[in-house]
Structures are given as C-alpha cells and as structure tokens.
TrEMBL record:
It comes from Electrophorus electricus (Electric eel). InterPro entries: AB_hydrolase_1 (IPR000073), AB_hydrolase_fold (IPR029058), Hydrolase_4 (IPR022742), MAG_DAG_Lipase (IPR051044). It comes from the Eukaryota. Residues 40-275 form the Serine aminopeptidase S33 domain. It holds the Pfam family Hydrolase_4. This is Serine aminopeptidase S33 domain-containing protein.
C-alpha cells in the first residue's frame, strides 16, 4: 500500500511508518533503536549519543551489553540522525532531557520490574546527568563516557563567551567551527568511519547551539554537589573535545557514596571507539560495573 502524500519522513526520505519511532511533545518524530538480548533481560540501559552523531554508531556497545542480558534502547536526539528537527540545533537543551524521559517512561511501562541504567557519551553525558538529576530515584546507575560537564577552556574564555552572547543576539545561526574528526579517536579506521558516516552532522556548530551547551554546563556544575546516585566516569586524559577537569570535579564534589572514575592515559574523546585495546577495556569495564549493580536473583 503506498504511503499517503505528506506522510512524515526522515531527513533521508524514509517514511516513519516503516521505522521504529516515538513522537515527542512538540510533534516531532524521533527515530528509535532497540537492541534486545537473546534471553530474558536483566535490566534496561538507555543510551544517549553525543552532539552531531546518532544512536546507530553504538551498535558495538549495545552488542556487548546484550551479551550480559541487558536490553539497550536509544533514539536519535531531535535534529540528529534520522530524527526530525533542525540539524544540531535546539531552542532549549531541556528538550533533550524531556524526550529521554518520555522514551524511558515508555520502556519502564513495558518492563516495570527491571532496573534502568543510563549510558551517555559527550553531550549525551550532559543529557544523562540532567535526566538523572530530574528523577534521582528512578535509575540504578549512570555511566558517563567522556561527558560534557565543563566547556573546553580554549572555547570558553571570558572574551569568547561575551562574543558568543553578542553573536547569539545578532546572528544566532552564525557557525563557529565544527568537530575535528581526528580528535574523536586514535584509531584511523574509526576516524574514517566517522568522516564517512552520512548520518553524522559534519557542518559547523551554530552560536545558538553553543549557548545551549554552555547553559547546560552551568546547570550541571550547580547540580553536582547534590548528586547522590551511583555513577561511573570514564575519560581519556588526552581528550581535547570535553575537558577531563569536568569529570574530576564531578567525582570530587558529588556526594554519591557509589562513584568511580577511570582515566585512560592518552585516551581520546570516543573511548568506546578509540584504539582496539582501549575500546575493549571500556566495554568490559562498563558491563562489569552495571552487572555489579543488578539486584541479586530471588531464590525460589
């Protein structure tokens, strides 16, 4: 049966009726992925991807977690990948958090007895932190790979912040540079895969989007002392996209009694796609940390 004319389609032209998706509070279609383990799932893991990328880039992460009976689900954030919305731009960072909670609540309704974890990378780490801060009792733990907590000091000098505010007022769509693929990973194959991925946004970052990231960073810094939920931070000390000082600040200042920080010497930004031995270690560490926080199986 042919699609009715005007039926909503992805930015790539695929009808949403052919794809798994949710519709957010603004009426936008968000493309979803679900990675189910072979047997009964022991927990749910919501995966929050980073700026400019998409959830399909995490199939290897999801596959590893599936091996441990963890059900992984995700969506492309608004303006990303196969979801609707202006490319890598948002009027309010809170929209990302609202959409994540909508998707999490949907899955909680389907699996009411399973604990829920969040795994976030880069900007997805910032989304994960703020999502957990809104519902601190709802999550069994949060895993953060190279999270965006503090803005890179090179891009957040007082003068640059002032200039960004002026530009945001006068020319919010003005672009201020794009992510250098060579800073993503030390593995040339991963850099090449990122560069050739047509679902990744390779354009420049708008000033208005940069302001939303700065606002999210400021909000996170004010929330850190109140964080009591379990978390695991993984960060490379050679990450030039998200400053490791943010991870150190969160680890030192959060009041959580269950917290862990693992630093990878020489590690770049996407640790899960860094050199093979690093990526393998990251996936093993993450799996182990989540499994250790699952409730003990009830005795018959």
């Amino acid at each position: 049966m042919p699609e009715p004319e005007g039926a909503p389609r992805t930015p790539q032209g695929v009808p949403y009726s052919d794809l798994q998706h949710i519709v957010n509070a603004d009426g936008l279609h968000l493309f979803c992925r679900y990675w189910e383990p072979n047997g009964p799932p022991k927990a749910l893991v919501f995966l929050a991807h980073g700026a400019g990328e998409h959830c399909g880039a995490y199939r290897d992460v999801a596959g590893k977690l599936n091996q441990h009976s963890l059900f992984v689900f995700s969506h492309d954030h608004e303006g990303h990948g196969q979801s609707e919305g202006e490319r890598m731009n948002i009027k309010n960072f809170q929209t990302y958090i609202r959409d994540c909670l909508q998707h999490i609540d949907l899955m909680r309704g389907r699996y009411p007895n399973l604990p829920i974890f969040i795994l976030g990378h880069s900007m997805g780490g910032a989304i994960s932190i703020l999502t957990a801060c809104e519902r601190p009792q709802d999550f069994a733990g949060i895993v953060l790979i190279s999270p965006m907590i503090q803005m890179n000091p090179e891009s957040a000098t007082p003068f640059k912040v002032f200039l960004a505010k002026v530009l945001n007022h006068m020319a919010p769509s003005f672009t201020i540079g794009s992510i250098d693929p060579k800073l993503i990973s030390r593995d040339p194959k991963q850099v090449e895969a990122y560069e050739s991925d047509e679902l990744v946004y390779h354009g420049g970052m708008r000033v208005s989007f940069g302001m939303q990231l700065m606002a999210a960073s400021t909000r996170i810094e004010s929330e850190i002392p109140n964080i009591t939920w379990p978390f695991f931070l993984l960060h490379g000390d050679a990450d030039r996209i998200c400053d490791i000082r943010g991870a150190n600040a969160m680890y030192n200042q959060a009041t959580s009694t269950d917290k862990k920080l693992k630093v990878y010497e020489g590690g770049y930004h996407a640790l899960h796609h860094d050199l093979p031995e690093t990526a393998e270690s990251v996936l093993q560490e993450v799996s182990t940390w989540i499994l250790e926080r699952l409730p003990a199986p009830s005795r018959p």
